[in-house]
Amino acid sequence: MQHHRNSEMLDALASIPLFTGIPARHLGELAHSTRRVGYDKGQTIFHVGDAARELFFLLSGQVKRATFSVGGNERVLELVAPGRHFGEAELFGPQLHASFAVAVEPSVLLCIGGDGVRRALEAVPLLSLRIIGALAGRALAVESDASASHFRTGCQRVLDYLLAQLATPLAPQGETTLTLAASKQLIASRIGITPETLSRVLRDLSDAGMIIVDGRNIHLQNACITRRLAETRPEQPVFPRRYGQRDGSGTASRRRRLVAAPTTPCGIINLAGRQRMLSQRLAKCWLQLGHGIQPGRSRNVLAQSAALFEEQMAVIATLAPNADVRSIQSRVGEIWNSYRRLLARDPEPKAARELFELNEILLAATDEITLAFEHAADSPHGRWVNLAGRQLMLSQRIAKFYLFQQWGIHVARSRAGLAEAMREFATALTELAVPARAVPEIEHQLERVSRHWQLLESTLGTAGPADEKRRATLVAAVSERLLRQTDAAVGLYEALSA
C-alpha cells in the first residue's frame, strides 16, 4: 500500500515542470514527504502567521492568496490555476506566511514537505535555478502591480490581466476567446479595482471594439487590440482616464473618447461602415426586447451600441473630406436624434412600425457617407473593406427583418428585405473570396464566416426549431456570432492596405 502511494506521488511529481529532469533518487525523497490533500470551497489552506513548512502545487480547482489592508479590505495577491505552485517565497524566506490561501472552488493540492525541497535544492542545481526563476517572476509581478496601481488606468490593468491569461501571445488578427476562471469580484480584487469599476471597464473595452463580453467568455478582437497597442507611445496611456479620475497633478481630468480616429483611408472606411452595422444592430436589440429575448443583455447591448454610435459619429465628423460629406453627416445627426428617441420607447407595434421606416432612412444616410469615404480613398483596398464592412451590417439586418416579420410588422416587406439581405450576403461572400486566395489568413477567416453563415441559413430555414420563440432566440444568437467572425475578416482586409 505504501509502495503504491509512493509510486503515485512519484508520477505526480514527475509531471510537474518544476521537477522535470530531477534525478529519481531526489524525486523519491520528495515523494516521501508529499501529501495529496483535497479542500472544499472556502476552506483555508494556511493563515497569515502560520509556519511555512510546505510547497504547494495545485492539481485541480482554484486557490486565491490574499491579505487584508489596514482598513480590513481584502486584496487578492494571486489567483492560482491548476498546474501552478505557490508558497516558495515564504518557504525560503521568513518562513511565516504573510498572506492566507483559500480554495475558491473544490481543489486538490500536492503539499510537498519543505525540508525535502531544501535538501533537493542543495543537491540539484537545476532545481535551484528554477526556484530562483519563480521567485524572480514573483518579484517582477509585485513591481508591476505597484507600478500599475499608480501609473496605469483601470482599462490598461484589465487589458493587461486578460492578455496575461492567454497561453500564447495574441495573434495579430482574428478573434481569441478567453473564459474567465474566476469571478469578477475576485478579478477586480486581484487587479486592485472595485467590481463596479471592472464592469464599467469591460463596457468601455467593448465600446472600443476590443472585446465582446458573453457571460464568462471574453472574445478578444485581436486586430483592434494589436492596432491600439501599436498606436500607443510608451509614455501615452492606451486609454485616457475618465472624467473624475485624477491625473498626475492631482486635478480631475476631463473624459476623452475611447474611439480613436483612424489614420488610414481604409480605417476611415471601416469606421464609417460600422455606423451602418450599428443602425441595424440597434433595431435588432430593440426588437429582441419586444420578443422577450434575453432582456437584460439586449438592453445592455442596446445602450452600449447607442453610445458607440454617438462617439463614432463625433469622430467621423472630424474626418469629412468635403462639404458634401459634412452635409450628409449633419443629416445623419438629425435622423439619429429621432431614432434615439424612438429606441428609448418601450417596444410595441406602433413604435415598431415607426422604427421600421426610420431605420431604413438612417441606414441609407450612413451608407452614403461610407461610399463617399470609399470614393475619396480611390483604392481597390477601400472597396474590399467597404464590401466586407457591409457584411457586418447584413448580419444584423437579416436578424432584424426576421424579428420584424415574426412580430407581424410589415410582413411582406420584412420577408422581401430578409430574402434580399441573404442574397446580398451570399453574393458578397463569394466575391470577397477572390482577394482572399492570395492571403491564407483571410481565406481561413472567410471559411469561419462561411460556417457561421451556413448555420444562420439553416436556423432561418426548415432545419430551424419549430418553436418560434426558440427560433427567434437562436437567430439573434447566431447573428451575433456571425458578426464577430465577419468583424475579424474586416480587420484583415483593412490590414491589407497597411
TrEMBL record:
Domain of life of the organism encoding this protein: Bacteria
GO CC terms, sorted: cytosol; membrane
Database matches in InterPro entries: cNMP-bd_dom, cNMP-bd_dom_sf, Env_Response_Regulators, HTH_CRP, NarX-like_N, RmlC-like_jellyroll, WH-like_DNA-bd_sf, WH_DNA-bd_sf
Record-level Gene Ontology MF annotations: DNA binding; DNA-binding transcription factor activity
Main location per the UniProt record: membrane
Gene3D superfamilies cross-referenced by the UniProt entry: Jelly Rolls, Winged helix-like DNA-binding domain superfamily/Winged helix DNA-binding domain
PROSITE patterns reported for this sequence: CNMP_BINDING_3, HTH_CRP_2
Membrane topology: Multi-pass membrane protein
UniProt domain Cyclic nucleotide-binding: residue ranges: 18-138
Compartments, record wording: Membrane
Keyword Protein biosynthesis among record annotations: no
Keywords in alphabetical order: DNA-binding, Membrane, Transcription, Transcription regulation, Transmembrane, Transmembrane helix
Location of the HTH crp-type domain: 152-224
Pfam families listed in its UniProt record: cNMP_binding (PF00027), HTH_Crp_2 (PF13545), PilJ (PF13675)
Protein name listed in UniProt: CRP-like cAMP-binding protein
Species this protein is from: Sulfurisoma sediminicola
